[in-house]
Automatic annotation (TrEMBL), chain A:
Residues 142-171 form the 4Fe-4S ferredoxin-type domain. Transmembrane segments: none annotated. Its EC number is 1.3.5.1. It catalyses: a menaquinone + succinate = a menaquinol + fumarate. Binds 1 [3Fe-4S] cluster. Residues 8-95 form the 2Fe-2S ferredoxin-type domain. PANTHER family: FUMARATE REDUCTASE IRON-SULFUR SUBUNIT (PTHR11921:SF36), SUCCINATE DEHYDROGENASE IRON-SULFUR PROTEIN (PTHR11921). It comes from Helicobacter gastrocanis. The keyword Nucleotide-binding does not apply. This is Fumarate reductase iron-sulfur subunit. Keywords: 2Fe-2S, 3Fe-4S, 4Fe-4S, Iron, Iron-sulfur, Metal-binding, Oxidoreductase, Tricarboxylic acid cycle. Belongs to the succinate dehydrogenase/fumarate reductase iron-sulfur protein family. The keyword Iron applies.
TrEMBL record, chain B:
It catalyses: a quinone + succinate = fumarate + a quinol. Belongs to the FAD-dependent oxidoreductase 2 family. FRD/SDH subfamily. It is a peripheral membrane protein. This is succinate dehydrogenase. It is found in: Cell inner membrane. The gene is frdA.
Length: 242, 687
């Protein structure tokens, strides 16, 4: 027999006139290798078909299942129930994103807005002939771009961000990281000055209070602290020159 | 009733759908992409290993070209594929990867000089030429003549998907997420869009379009154990099946991967065994040498899968709450090797199974109890170590799908399909590693372009009355699910379906068990009409969604099981114990499944022959298993003679490989994609 655990989940349906936010407890017997993906699946199938949550890859790759787990933003699929010594695990939806229902939040809309704002594509005017060999890229540059391109848009950095709570339109670490990814990519011809137009304000790099909750909670261990500092440094130089 | 109009409707926001939507924008069409989830979360992101494209840049890729990629793909398919489609694909793949590079995919690049590698268990040094520094690198994958798999570390699918999604944003593609297609609107054999349900509000809206393209991915979730994401339920193509006009091809062609982690189903890469990792049974015995003395753990994917299950069936699997499994032991390689060379595997095992895969310390000797002493072939037992990783074969890839012609057009006019959802048919009965994300993006280019051309010329000659009827019917179906007096529980039905698929329509198939599967699935299908949904809300109701999806998934399961029952041969991943030979004389064809009458409870099957006289490569021995394990097609000798005659003639005329290919099997492809691929060697020679 595994230990008895309690999953305590926030329930609230903003589309219902009668629903009020409340916690509901679900008792489960813990089994070996039990992740919150497995636990929540069992709850839906056996205890409460109405509990809403999001999973897609269930392998820590897609970023769908971020939620507040014992007060900290994490990917539920990658979280083992055995990693908590207490018998009660409390689940809440991430703050800073519109609530859909229960543990499900609308990250898609937020990230679509962020991508539009930083114009998240490689800007260049060349006509490229794809029958010919590709442009050379320094292997180290490709590796550095890849390191930042690993962001899975899960929203943990946004949920962990103090600035975002106070500043509605703050772009967050995910947005600054995305800008930096294109800034160092030689396929993108935009200058530091161009990026200043996109992120050189209080809703961008200059709003960041450097609390670095983003860095601490990123499930992909993207080096956000250094990346943000580097970007801000570049933007300060542009700002001073103006 | 709300109706939205557009020129082109794309259902599915993975690699294939997004790339096709860009093709639509390039010719100025008003295109809408519908996605179940925010587009960057699709299953395309999960592809780790890489994308096949014959660039021939790196040392181990030198001399690679379209011909070799074609040969590998056709052999891999066990001659079940459409060879003209394979030609279209291998010709376009190098262009696809170069386009993606240009869009910013940070492909891993060649570094000049020496680098260490392990080939056949031997440590070797590979030296890259200075003039190749900075071009795209390729890695080795099973079943290929050259190192052809281009990659970005172990996150290839992720970087590809993000680049294509970024470019879709650049082209102002309209994307709507958390939207699910629940029916296709069609009339007079022509498709006019879809009925779509908003997964947040529950609103049902008609999307009317000149053309519709499905890029809805595979159907692995009809199995209990699968490496697929939870959204890969096959509901997209099931909805196409429900038109009664569109047909599904080769649904019985399902690929299984031998080493998926228990219970999560996440893949443990083939590299574990490539580096020297071994498989152990519950007594710690290394059993593979007894079954496959030559290749042992490194026999081909389908062979290893079969042996593991055979061994478990003998009662030698380790027990767990998630069923019996065997162990993958990579601790044998030493901690330094695991932590350096198998870093991700190490992390995945740690996170999802709570196992430190490098830990070779003793856990228990209990596992040795009851070991038979009269089976020396299976090797000596070993006490259980802490680092053994639980694995077993699981469903991995869907070769079958919505049957289309080479332009991606289905039997229903105006309905196109691309990517894993389609039976285009690039993969036949077995897909080569690295050809899946590659197909997704290449099909998005080629089929996307044909689709865009269709939408440009098509007319919207449908009355709003018919559109409203379809919306009304979907609305009624939802109400019926919510308010019937049935007693069936959706989760019990879905779970039983998945168990049947695993137990009876898995790696090994046999007439009597397949027959039992079909009967039981048909019974479940009938029961599914009486599913009772407890939660009565029309919006954001996961139970309701599972109810209508399960009804559709059962149709997919029936197409697979019935297809497998009737196909009395073994080809690629379809293994019939009672019909072990590949039978070209009777089965060189494609299974087509349709559902013309909504009241029928089994699919209608028919067969579409593959024309051997048009093949560039006639069906032959695939290279493993017993030689001569196939029954030749009666026209094989005639085609072989023709191929020989054509080859000699072209060679006598001094023709090159392009002339020969064109003479053997001419194929249609947009000129921009058919243009010859220039490689570094060609350039050097030209200088």
């Amino acid at each position: 027999m595994g230990r008895q655990i309690t999953i305590r989940a926030l329930k609230f349906d903003p589309q219902s006139a009668v629903s009020k936010p409340h916690f509901k407890d679900y008792q489960l017997e813990e089994i070996p290798s039990m992740t919150l993906f497995i636990a929540l699946g069992m709850i839906r199938e056996q205890l409460d078909p109405d509990l809403s949550f999001d999973f897609v890859c269930r392998a820590g790759i897609c970023g769908s299942c971020a939620m507040m787990i014992n007060g900290r933003p994490r990917l539920a699929c990658k979280t083992l129930t055995s990693s908590f010594s207490e018998n009660v695990i409390t689940l809440m939806p991430m703050p800073s994103f519109p609530l859909i229902k229960d543990l499900s939040v609308n990250t898609g809309e937020w990230f679509a807005g962020m991508n539009a704002r930083v114009e998240s594509w490689a800007h260049h005017k060349k006509e490229v002939d794809i029958t010919k060999p590709e442009e050379r890229v320094d292997p180290d540059e490709a590796q550095s771009v890849f390191e930042l391109d690993r962001c899975i848009e899960c929203g943990c950095c946004i949920a962990a961000c103090g600035t975002k709570l106070m500043r509605e339109n703050f772009i967050g670490a995910a947005g600054m990281n995305r800008a930096m990814r294109f800034l160092i990519d030689s396929h993108d011809e935009r200058s530091d000055d161009d990026f200043y137009e996109l992120v050189g304000d209080d809703d961008g790099v200059f709003g960041c209070m450097s609390l670095i909750g983003c860095h601490d909670t990123c499930p992909k261990q993207i080096p956000l602290q250094g990346t943000l500092a580097q970007l801000r440094n570049k933007m300060v130089k542009v700002g001073k020159a103006r | 009733m709300k109706v939205v109009y557009c020129d082109a409707l794309v259902v599915g926001g993975g690699l294939a759908g997004l790339r096709a939507s860009i093709a639509c924008r390039q010719v100025g069409l008003d295109v809408i992409v519908l996605s179940l989830v925010p587009v960057r979360r699709s299953h395309s992101a999960a592809a780790q290993g890489g994308m096949q494209a014959s660039l021939g840049n790196a040392k181990m890729s030198e001399g690679d070209n379209e011909d070799l990629h074609f040969l590998d793909t056709v052999k891999g398919s066990d001659w079940g594929c459409d060879q003209q489609v394979a030609r279209m694909f291998v010709t376009t793949a190098p262009k696809a990867i170069r386009e993606l590079a240009n869009w910013g995919v940070p492909w891993t690049r060649i570094k000049k000089g020496d680098r260490p590698a392990v080939i056949n268990g031997e440590h070797v040094t590979i030296t890259e030429r200075e003039d190749r520094h900075g071009y795209i690198l390729s890695r080795d994958f099973g079943g290929t003549k050259k190192w052809r798999t281009c990659f970005t570390a172990d996150a290839t699918g992720h970087t590809m998907l993000y680049a294509v999604a970024n470019e879709a944003l650049h082209h102002k593609v309209k994307i709507e997420d958390r939207k699910e297609m629940i029916a296709l609107i069609h009339h007079g054999g022509k498709c006019y869009g879809a009925v779509v349900r908003d997964l947040i509000t529950g609103e049902i809206v008609g999307y009317v379009s000149k053309g519709t393209l499905l890029a809805t991915g595979g159907y692995g979730r009809v199995y209990k154990h699968t490496t697929n994401a939870v959204i890969c339920d096959g509901v997209g193509i099931a909805t196409a099946l429900e038109t009664g006009v569109a047909k599904l091809g080769n649904m019985e062609a399902v690929q299984f991967h031998p080493t998926a982690l228990v219970p999560s189903g996440i893949l443990m890469t083939e590299g574990c065994r490539g580096d020297g990792g071994i498989l152990r049974d519950k007594f710690g015995r290394r059993f593979m040498p007894a079954y496959e003395p030559e290749k042992k753990e490194l026999a081909s994917r389908d062979v290893v899968s079969r042996r593991i299950l055979e061994h478990i069936k003998r009662g030698y699997g380790a027990n767990s709450p998630y069923g019996d499994h065997v162990w993958l032991d990579i601790a044998i390689l030493g901690r330094a090797h695991v932590e350096k060379n198998l870093r991700d595997v190490h992390e995945i095992a740690e996170t999802f199974a709570g196992v430190d895969a490098a830990d070779d310390s003793l856990e228990t000797e209990e596992n040795l109890k009851g070991m038979p002493t009269d089976e020396p072939d299976f090797g000596p037992g070993a006490p259980k170590q802490k680092g053994w990783v639980p694995i077993k074969p699981m469903q991995h890839y869907s070769m079958g799908g919505l049957r289309t012609d080479y332009k991606g057009h289905s039997h229903l006019k105006g309905l196109f399909c691309a990517g894993e959802a389609a039976c285009w048919d690039l993969h036949g009965f077995n897909r080569l590693g690295g050809n899946s994300v590659s197909e997704a993006v290449v099909a998005g280019m080629i089929i996307g372009d044909y689709f865009a051309a269709y939408c440009k010329s098509a007319e919207l000659d449908i009355s709003t009355h018919i559109v409203e009827q379809f919306i009304q019917k979907s609305h009624e179906h939802i109400q019926e699910l919510l308010h019937n007096d049935g007693k069936e529980n959706v989760y019990e039905i879905r779970e039983r379906m998945r168990e049947i698929m695993d137990e009876k329509v898995g790696v090994f198939r046999e007439g009597h068990t397949l027959e039992a599967a079909v009967n039981e699935l048909e019974e479940l299908y009938k029961r599914s009409k009486h599913i009772h949904v407890k939660n009565k809300k029309t919006h954001n109701n996961p139970e309701l969604e599972d109810a209508y999806r399960t009804q559709k998934m059962l149709k997919i399961a029936l197409c697979i099981a019935k297809g497998a029952l009737d196909r009395t041969e073994s080809r690629g991943a379809h293994t019939r114990l009672d019909h072990p030979k590949r039978d070209d004389a009777n089965w060189l064809n494609r299974t087509l499944a349709s559902w013309p009458d909504p009241n029928q409870t089994l699919p209608t099957l028919e067969y579409e022959p593959l024309d051997i006289m048009k093949m560039e490569l006639s069906p032959d021995f695939r290279g493993y298993g017993a030689k001569g394990n196939f029954i030749p097609h009666p026209l094989k000798e005639q085609r072989d003679a023709e191929i020989k005659e054509i080859t000699e003639r072209i060679q006598a005329q001094g023709g090159d490989r392009y002339d020969l290919q064109e003479a053997l099997m001419p194929f249609d492809l947009q000129p921009k994609y058919k243009a010859r691929n220039v490689r570094l060697d060609d350039q050097r020679q030209g200088e």
